[in-house]
Amino acid sequence: MFEIIKKTLTDNSIVGAIFSSISIILLGFYIRKKEIINSTASKMLTKVVLTVSLPALAFTSFMKDINGKQLQEGMGILIWGFAIYILLIPITKIMFAKVKGDKQDVYRVLVIFGSTTFFSTPIVTAVYGSDGTMLSNIFNIAYRVFLYSYAFIKMSGVKMDRENFKKNMKQIFLNPIILATFIGLLIWLFQDSLPQVAVTVKGEVKNYAFLRIDQTVPWLYKPLDYLKALASPLAWLAIGATLAEVPFKKAVAQKDAWTYSLIKVVCVPVINFILLLVVYKLGIIPVSFVGMATTVLMMAAPTATVAAAYAISYDREALFTSNCSLLSTVVAVAAMPIWIVVLEVIKNIGLFA
């Protein structure tokens, strides 16, 4: 076991990913505290990441050749995405059975929905590369569906009538990241059926789908390549800047917020891992180590911004939610390096292919 941990901690790519994320988050914290950037600038950073960089990252992750194994795993991760959110609904009901009133609903929604897109995807990309990015975006399809349906209903108290259904469907399917994911996913899935273009690659002529712009129109693909590279550093800067704006002392004093943070960042990923291990060993869902690790890091994300916004907008334990959002982010930043090391230990044990 010691040798496995030593090997992990001396792996330059893993150490580099961990150090990069923490140091850039701290840099974001510093430049906001020193007023090098103001609150407007930090919000704009977040907006750029969500509307430009992460969509580019999502789309480009699908610009790769397809094979049977990848297709099988991608569909498995899509199914698991829906399964884990469905399972967490009754699990959190049992977990917080003793909590009464609005607070139970708030606890459950905040525990189920983390900042998978903004917080986890850049880390997954840094550690597991384009394969992890692709799987994280496939996994996030279910996340978006439940976030804009179940979470909205629970926090707002309104019924999902035709008007609300249309509104939430627009929020789901007109989201830039979801749009980029679906477009990229469809190109990846149907690339062998699309019209082909002969391309010379390293002196060899190969046929690619005309929409595989990474090969057929590389000059058009290049801007997306630059934009996707901004996703992780800009997201980490924005996380640090956001942490610098929140009153830390009041949040630290609330024990419930600490309890929530540990459940969100530690217990939920463990539940995800155990359940996924069971369905994998039973042969129900095929999943590789990278697929499993991606889902664990996604579930270890702190409070989702949209979930927190629901609570604040509908006055459902607004102060508690704000404190949870801050503390869970701090705990997640501290826990991510530990999770990455734990996952590498699991990899070396050989529980997943």
Overview of the structural elements:
The protein has 353 residues and is mostly helical. The protein has one domain: Up-down Bundle (Na+/H+ antiporter like fold). It is 78% helix and 3% strand. It has 15 helices and two strands. A two-stranded antiparallel sheet has the order 1-2. Strand 1 and strand 2 form a beta hairpin. The longest helix has 41 residues. The two termini are 19 Å apart. The model has no long low-confidence stretch (mean pLDDT 89).
Total helix count?
15
Q: Uncertain runs with pLDDT below 50, 5 residues or more? A: none
Helix content: over 70%
Mind describing the biggest β-sheet? Answer: 2 strands, antiparallel
Order of helices and strands: HHHHHHHHEEHHHHHHH
Instruction: For the largest sheet, list the strands in their spatial order.
Output: 1-2
CATH architecture descriptor name: Up-down Bundle
Distance between the termini: 19 Å
Number of strands: 2
